[in-house]
Amino acid sequence: MAIGSKGLTPADLDAMDDERLAEELSKAKTELFNLRFASATGQLEDHGRMKAVRRDIARIYTIVRERELGIRTAPSTQEEDAK
To answer: One GO CC annotation, please (predicted)?
Structure first.
């Protein structure tokens, strides 16, 4: 069983463009900050969520890096296809 958020599987991330990946990364980092804050104040109830968010962040970074190296390609948009 994979640990992570629904909608952030490698196949789903691969279908996102770079801007959407940046948005997802920002949301995940914000959520991790809030989870860490809740943990520090003793209010965190779901400790497994921290692990899932960390893995989501790692998945996003992996997809971005693979695109930089040319291992994966970003999905083409219809505007680029028309050229």
So the answer is: cytosolic large ribosomal subunit
Contact status, residue 32 vs residue 54, Cβ threshold 8 Å: yes
Which pTM was predicted?
0.83
Helix axes 18-40, 48-69, angle to 10 degrees: 150
Nearest by Cα to 55 from 31, 71, 20: 31
Q: Quick check: 77 pLDDT over 80?
A: no
Q: How many CB atoms lie within 10 A of CB 6?
A: 6
Spatial distance between the Cα atoms of 83 and 81, rounded to a whole number of angstroms: 6
Half-sphere exposure of 22 (CA within 13 A, CB side): 3
